[in-house]
Amino acid sequence: MIDIRKTFKTTATYYLIRLFRSQVQDFFTNLGEVSIMSVLTIINLFKGKIKWKEVIYQCYRFGVTSLPITLSIVGMTSVIVATQVASEMVKQGGENFVGMMITMLIIREAGIIMSGFAIISMIGSSLASEVATMRVTEQIDAISVLKVDPIRYLFVPRVLSGMLMMPLIWVLSSLIGVLAGSFASNLASGLSYRAYFDSVWYGIRIYDINVNLLKAVVYGFTIALICCTFGYNAKGGAKGVGIATTKAVVWSFVALVILDMIFAVSFFF
Amino acid sequence: MIKVNNLVKKFDKKTVLDDLSFEVADGETLAVVGFSGSGKSTVLKIICNLLTQDSGTVYTSEGDVAMVFQYSALFDSLNVFDNIAFALTERPDIKKKYSKSELCEIVSQKLKLVGLSGIEDKYPSELSGGMQKRVSFARAIVTEPKTILYDEPTAGLDPISSTLIEDYIVRLKEETHASSIVVTHQMSTITRTADRVLMIYKGKKVFEGTPEEMLNYGNEYTKQFVTASLHGPMQMLAE
């Protein structure tokens, strides 16, 4: 007689269901770990003694070393948009609004999200692999055995540096974005710099700047926290470091887009 | 003193430690031996609070528990000085604020104890495996612990470096009078450092006695271990 349960366990459907179940389990486990670590980090940010020397080093790493890539990416995004849009707008008689449109796009969205993506790729992956390597080589165990809190020692300086540097990166990259937009508009459509910069001011509102400064702080916190958490929970050897880094990057990207949507709906709806 | 009573630890459904009990007196060194995966390192991790047991109790004398990790686990972004001074500068419960000169003196004293004077500025990557191990000894004893745990201290070292490490284990015992547990596979480490030997198989204690008793084939388990025989009560390959 055919055992239906046994037969079902050999089918592709069964393996698909199992895979789906493990993916869902994995998702909620990771979400739980990130949530717990965020609470512990926030507690330590307010309670623990902050090592400013380490924070400064991490700020240098987070902000200064990433700056060439961040500025290039935001600058090029602005050039791409301006090249395609400026000539069309000039044709339609909207030359007085090109600067405003580029500025709004860069300040509200492109500046911060493209900077975030660049930071994740460059700094986030490095944070995750660094902490993961410390985990698999028992350095984090050694920290615990020496009675030092790994959250305070590893997470706080990195997360704090993210929160401090991300707004600065956003300001600089937005500035470069707006400037690059002016060059591209001029080259693509012959729009004068004066016409461009006259309308730039219409695209800058104090409200937008405040919201985006807050957004930058939240992004900096999220990127550093997610990358440190996945590194901290890495298992195994070199393969574990690779998996942790990949997960950290993917989760950070997704988290940034979700946060961006939440900010857009909350502040600009 | 270390007292372990009825320790049970499971990972998923696999029982790694099964009702394990033993004691280590003050100033005594216990060697814990057994096959790979028999639960030796798990015992150490429970004693130093890196893992929690499912049931059973662990008692250690008041004072710090130090651990020397299998691959040293030195902080590779810090130099030797910062590695050794780490606990003194980072631990929130150490209220005393050490001056730079005090730290220098303590670090150089600990380095001298492990025969490595003058390497404070070097980074772990610039040291050999044996030197890294000795630096990790110095880091472990910087807070004058009452319990020292060694996880395979001679693993991956050449025979001469192993002998040197074994000498330092004995020397640290004499200097600190700490209770020590040495997890090892190496017969020389057992005979040269341990006062007693505990053998674990499938998470259970299968032998406890002196190194001499073990070498004289205390029971079937130790006989198989000492003679490195494939035939005996312990079946590693079959698992």
Describe this structure in words.
The complex is a heterodimer of chains A (269) and B (239). In chain A, helix 2 (12-47) packs across helix 7, helix 3 runs parallel beside helix 7 and helix 5 runs antiparallel to helix 10 (238-268). Chain A is built from 10 helices and no strands. Chain A is mainly alpha-helical. In chain A, 86% of the residues lie in helices and 0% in strands. Chain A has one domain (34-268). Chain A has helices at 4-8, 12-47, 52-64, 67-91, 98-136, 139-145, 150-189, 193-200, 206-232, 238-268. With 239 residues, chain B is an alpha/beta fold. Chain B has a domain at 2-11 and 49-205: P-loop containing nucleotide triphosphate hydrolases (Rossmann fold). In chain B, 34% of the residues lie in helices and 24% in strands. Chain B is built from 8 helices and 9 strands. Chain B has helices spanning 40-47, 80-90, 100-113, 129-140, 159-176, 187-193, 211-215, 220-226; strands at 2-11, 14-24, 29-33, 55-60, 65-68, 147-151, 179-183, 196-201, 204-209. In chain B, strands 5-6-7-3-8-9 form a 6-stranded mixed beta sheet, with helices on both faces. In chain B, a hairpin with a 2-residue loop joins strand 8 and strand 9 (204-209). In chain B, helix 3 (100-113) packs across helix 4, helix 4 (129-140) packs parallel to helix 5 (159-176) and helix 5 packs parallel to helix 6 (187-193). The longest helix of chain B has 18 residues, at 159-176. The radius of gyration of chain B is 18 Å and the shape is globular. The model of chain B has no long low-confidence stretch (mean pLDDT 90). The A-B interface holds A 48-49, 134, 137-139, 141-149, 152-153 and B 45, 48-50, 64-67, 69-71, 73-76, 86-87, 90-93, 139, 143.
